[in-house]
Design goal:
Layout (H helix, E strand, L loop, with lengths): L4 H8 L3 H9 L6 H14 L5 H10 L10 E6 L10 H17 L2 E6 L4 H13 L4 E4 L8 E2 L8 E5 L3 E3 L3 E5 L1 H14 L5 E4 L2 H6 L3 H12 L17 H11 L3 E4 L3 H8 L9 E4 L9 E4 L2 H17 L11 E4 L2 E3 L10
Parallel strand pairs: 1-2, 1-3, 3-5, 4-6, 5-7, 7-12, 8-9, 9-10, 10-11
Antiparallel strand pairs: 11-13
Length: 340
């Protein structure tokens, strides 16, 4: 006969609820009891059937999703300030909506920077029975490492700013979409195509935009070869203006809002004097270019966490998977067809 929870409870002389919590790795189980339950489960050859567990969970659902457990949403800002960062607001919106639809609660937590505080957070999450952890991008710390007791958690990263450890992650589809972006710029008639990226952001992207730009130039050798902006002395208005005057691009590929704002302050007109293509367009801005589907990324990471939790797959995976979400094209007013 296949071992089940009742057999383990009888052999270990504990209740069914205790067995369930112990085998799911939840907090609140006495260490001695936990060891006894695990020993009995191993001796009886117990194997949890995640699909059967999922079926029972679904059968018990009412019209409204039944509460499963709580997921942690780690970000660099407190929840009250998410609205200041459009990308973070989008990630959280998608995450919270999908979590609610599956019956999960969400706890928003500010990512601690120091290793000691990170280890303390790990203990707090375990004590509160939180097993699913989503890690949002960190924009100001390089390199960014997170020291949790990973064997207790199913974890996934949004974006790719975490250097260690390697987690399964959901990110923008960078390589394909950047290649299509440069091709689109050329189709619109531009030949002097310049690249002006923030160096720190490029490091976090593993030089993804620069790699796509150099490959594009290699495949389009007939175009003028402009030197990319190198902001070794800082990504500043002064350095950008100097570079634009030296290289004389017809269009610049940028990230963030600062380049367009800096050029406007210096009297440049868009697109009459120079065109702009942005890789991270956000609502309310005029730039044309790529826009990440942050809400879909948030929804997708909940699906990954839910799947791992249902299967009891806690800890760091040997070969973390990567799910790429295509970017959308945002048609603004800064990259028209070039009629010069």
């Amino acid at each position: 006969m296949r071992a089940n929870l009742r057999m383990i409870a009888r052999e270990a002389r504990v209740g069914l609820g205790t067995v369930s919590r112990a085998l799911r790795g939840l907090a609140g189980v006495d260490p001695e009891t936990l060891a006894r339950v695990q020993a009995v489960a191993d001796r009886l050859g117990y194997v949890r059937d995640p699909q059967l567990a999922s079926a029972f969970s679904f059968a018990r659902r009412a019209e409204k999703p039944v509460y499963r457990e709580t997921l942690a949403f780690l970000a660099v800002e407190p929840e009250t300030r998410y609205g200041r960062l459009a990308w973070l607001q989008g990630l959280h919106t998608g995450f919270a909506e999908r979590a609610a639809g599956l019956g999960y609660a969400v706890r928003c937590i500010v990512t601690p920077r120091e290793a000691k505080a990170q280890r303390a957070l790990s203990r707090q999450l375990h004590a509160q029975g939180i097993r699913g952890v989503a890690v949002c991008p960190v924009t100001d710390w390089t390199p960014f490492e997170l020291d949790l007791e990973w064997k207790r958690f199913a974890a996934a990263e949004l974006g790719h700013s975490l250097w260690r450890p390697a987690l399964m992650r959901v990110e923008r589809d960078l390589a394909d979409d950047f290649a299509l972006m440069f091709t689109e710029i050329r189709k619109r008639g531009y030949r002097r195509i310049g690249l002006a990226m923030n160096r720190d952001d490029e490091v976090r992207r593993r030089w993804g935009v620069l790699a796509a730009y150099l490959l594009f130039r290699h495949r389009n050798a007939d175009l003028p070869a402009l030197r990319p902006l190198e902001d070794v002395s800082g990504y500043t208005k002064r350095n950008l203006l100097r570079w634009v005057r030296q290289e004389k691009p017809e269009v610049i590929v940028v990230n963030g809002s600062e380049p367009l704002d800096w050029l406007q302050e210096a009297g440049w007109r868009f697109p009459e004097d120079i065109a702009v293509c942005r890789i991270d367009c956000i609502p309310g801005r005029p730039e044309t270019g790529l826009a990440a589907d942050y809400e879909q990324m948030g929804r997708a990471v909940v699906n990954l966490l839910s799947s791992a939790l249902e299967r009891g797959e806690l800890g760091l995976p040997e070969r973390p998977g990567v799910l790429s979400i295509p970017n959308r094209w945002n048609e603004g007013s800064t990259l028209p067809m070039d009629v010069r």
